[in-house]
Amino acid sequence: MKQITVVGSGVMGKGIAYTSAISGYKVYLNDLNAAILAKAKQEIDDLLDTSFRGGFLKEEHYEAAKRNLLYEANLETAVRDADLVIEAVLEKMDLKIEVFQKLDHICKREAILATNTSTMSPTEIGAQTSRPDQVVAMHFFNPVHKMKLVEVIRGLETSDETVAFVKDIAQSMRKEAVEVKEFPGFVTSRMNCLIGNEAMNMFMEGVASAEDIDKAMKLGLNHPMGPLELADLVGLDTRLRNMEYLYATLGEKYRPCPILVKYVKAGRLGKKSRKGFYDYT
Q: Which InterPro entries match (predicted)?
């Protein structure tokens, strides 16, 4: 195992690339959008520098990561020699299937293909390829370099060898892996979306302010972040797509809160737009 390629340089993609690089792997980060890829490079460089100056990275790991991180807009070039490809594009099934069909065609035959989905079916994604036994979900958490968990979700055809391979990779990144049988939302997203959606309903109903709802969850239930803070961090558009998928697959209790729909329509997407349930301006 020498090379990891990450497809998609958004929040999760750049976090996975950074974590893979400081773990000693050669890493290609790919994005068709050159501007987004350049922005990701700048942010990863800033994080490397900050981590090194703060004493969180040893000099040899810092220098190795600088050497090992490569940025490539051409997908075929980025994945040609990859042993593991981790897709981190938007949570849209049609888009993921399109990416995996391309990867199946251009990756070497033994390459493992993983999706960093938080809700969607690796079985459905893998079925669009000629290697469903080598397709798996690796659900990382934001921020990737700090969060310890990786959910490893086995599709219907995913082999034991593939599951063992990605669990070993997660361990090499100093992560704890939990193995999950495929079901919409897996473990964490299924629970987290319910909690977040109920917090949004309470906020909409005027039960309490966003600050007090989050404070109650942090101090009363020992959550490290409040559910509304977390939704802003994840991105309200991303949360809405997750809720819509869970609503379609699991039913009424996952119906998205109306205020979430309204905020997304208004462009209030959380931290990335500088306004969500909180104002970040």
A: 3-OHacyl-CoA_DH, 3-OHacyl-CoA_DH_NAD-bd, 3HC_DH_C, 6-PGluconate_DH-like_C_sf, 6PGD_dom2, NAD(P)-bd_dom_sf
Give me the amino acid identity at 209. Answer: S
Contact assessment for residue 110 and residue 137, using Cβ atoms and an 8 Å cutoff: no
One-letter identity of residue 21? A
What residues of the chain score a pLDDT lower than 70? Answer: none
Query: What are the E-state strand segments in 112-217?
Result: 112-115, 135-139, 149-154, 176-181
Helices and strands (DSSP H and E) totals, the chain: 12, 8
Percent of the chain exceeding pLDDT 90 equals: 93
**Whole-structure pTM value:** 0.85
Residues 202, 209: Cα–Cα separation, whole Å: 9
Q: Which amino acid is at 206?
A: G
DSSP 82-138: -SEEEE---S-HHHHHHHHHHHHHHS-TT-EEEE--SSS-HHHHHTTSS-GGGEEEE
Torsion on CA atoms 178, 147, 70, 273, rounded to nearest 10:
120
